[in-house]
Amino acid sequence: MSFAEYIDVFGDNILFLLEQHVILFAIALSAAIVLGVVLGTLVHRFKRLDTLIVPVVNVLQACPEIVLLALAIPFLGIGISGALIPLFVKGVLPILRNTASGFASIDPRLLEAARGMGMSPAQILLRVEVPAILPIVIAGVRISAVMLVSVLTLTAYIGVDSLGTLILQGISRMDTTPLLIGSGLTALLAITVNYLLFGLERLASRRVS
Amino acid sequence: MALQVEFRDVTKAFPGTPPAVDRLSLTVEAGTILALVGPSGCGKTTTMKMVNRLIEPSSGDIVLGDTPISRMPVKELRRMIGYVIQYVGLFPHMSVAENIAIVPRLLGWNKPRIDARVDELLTLVGLVPQTHRARYPRNLSGGQQQRVGVARALAADPPVLLMDEPFGALDPITRVRVQDKLLAIQGKVRKTIIIVTHDMDEAIRLGDKVAVLRAGRLVQHEAPVDILRHPKDAFVAELIGHDRLVKLLSTLSVASVMSADAAPADTPSINRAATLEGAFLRMLDTGSDALAVEGGGSLHIRDLLRVSTG
Question: Which residues lie closer than 8 Å to A96 by C-beta, 6 or more apart?
């Protein structure tokens, strides 16, 4: 089947898979941001947690994605949760690390100046700390996001629809057309996400030297 | 408006070490500058931070006007006290105007009032509001950042100003310029200012009184001229340095020791407001043992010989 014919016949399916991929991506990234920021903040506030959380996250980070997926099947079954949970975990570490190092990079004398001027802890967080760490956190989110876009193609192996489905089809049928469409769209999505977040990062750091 | 700050038998002890501040009693009169000076670890910064309760005293009390600060709500107290630290204290993600507006915003002022106050303060510290308002700290020189720091501390017109090594990060020439600017501003606003420094020259230049601290104890608390004339012990003398008498000459003005006698004809002249150091250098320069003071009177080298005994 030629390229044009394939798109003509399976166009709707391609759009559906793209949509599925974006939805999976949005869920996985949101979860990774929430967990990464919360854990990063905890690690910064309570130094002892550092020795507890960071090694766990590091080990999960070092595990190949396909291994995580395989291990998840007996516990989580085949389906959305089985696909998403092991993968979003991979997105947590860069966000966690950047959140914690963002907090650590704030000059403590700056925080003391804020206290000395009569700011409450909440005001210090919102007006001083958050603006200061935002560009660093967004940089972490960008790394996670780009990684998640490509890693999510693997969900096809356990029967969850995504752009990976096209790639898998291409491989199993020795058909380069779906293979190229699947991987091309994945790459395009990754590049788009990268530039969008890069723009956001620049916007947030415009004011900070 | 300015308020007197009084330390009453204030001690701050951290567990396991000798007290950082040991039974300190001293009064900073309303509208005057106190320079707290001493080597690292002498307790000067701890002393200052107890005033806005960044550190709580272990015993004793600090009284602002006639209210002990332990009885004031911390936030309210801090908003009554301007706080200046080395120039890192400016928030890098806020413009100059936003930095200055922090305390007024905390106090809930409306925007027109804040804008007017920002412009007024920038003018006071010698920056042009139109060009500097929207800039970010990283685009300012060290001296300009420090002046914005002073403007920010003055924003809500606090009766008391605390300055922690405010000029420590500046090069010597800029430092003197900003010190002069501070004195000029103080001439207009008349705040009670406590300034912490390890630099005796700075303490002498800025302080109406200088308090020398060592190991948490108050060693000497006097006007700069008196400390230069009679350092209480070897420690204070060493802090002042070997050029103590030169510093004394540079602290006193011609007007303070001149005589009313007319000078002989053809003697070189000097301004009344010039320092005695300037006068002495002029004598060396011209080979004359007397100077005519502009506007009448004269200064003889004999007058200089008496200054160290006051």
Answer: A35, A36, A37, A39, A40, A43, A53, A54, A57, A140
Give the position of tokens 């809930």: B108
As a whole number, the mean pLDDT across chain B is 91
Nearest CB neighbour to A128, from listed B76, B79, B91: B91
Residue recorded with tokens 């690390």: A97
pLDDT in tens, B67-99: 999 999 998 899 899 998 876 688 988 999 999
Using a CB-CB distance cutoff of 8 angstroms, which residues of chain A are in contact with residue B155?
Answer: none
Domains defined for chain B, CATH in brackets? 5-242 (3.40.50.300), 252-309 (3.90.1280)
Alpha-carbon separation of residue B231 from B26, B27, B35 (angstroms): 18, 20, 16
Enter the tokens of residue A157: 């192996």
| C-alpha–C-alpha distance, residues B239 and B201, integer Å | 10
Rounded to whole angstroms, how far apart are CA atoms B188 and B120? Answer: 13
What is this structure's pTM? Answer: 0.80
Taking each helix axis from N to C end, the angle separating A80-104 and A130-151, rounded to the nearest 10 degrees, works out to 150
Tokens of A98: 């950047």
H-run or E-run covering A182: helix A176-205
CA B52 centroid distance within chain: 18
Name the maximum alpha-carbon separation found in chain B: 70
Closest CA to B146 of B87, B90, B94: B87
CA nearest to B100 within chain A: A117
Q: Say yes or no for a CB contact (<8 Å) between B85 and A120.
A: no
Q: Which CATH architecture has domain A3-205?
A: Orthogonal Bundle (1.10)
Cβ-nearest to B54 among A112, A123, A131: A112
The torsion angles phi and psi of A106, rounded to 5 degrees, stand at: -75, 130
User: Contacts of residue A117 in chain B, CB cutoff 8 Å?
Assistant: 78-79, 83, 102-103, 106
The tens digit of pLDDT for each residue in B16-29 reads: 888 999 999 999 99
Residue tagged 């979003």 (tokens): A88
- Find the CB nearest B83 among A113, A128, A207: A113
- Predicted confidence (pLDDT) at residue A22 exceeds the cutoff of 90: yes
Q: Residue ranges per domain, chain A?
A: 3-205
Give, for B162, the enclosing helix (H) or strand (E). Answer: strand B160-164
Judging contacts by C-beta atoms under 8 Å, the chain A residues touching residue B75 are 118, 120
CB nearest A118 (choices: B88, B103, B138): B103
Task: Provide, as residue numbers in chain A, all residues whose Cβ is less than 8 Å from the Cβ of B85.
Answer: 109, 112-113, 116
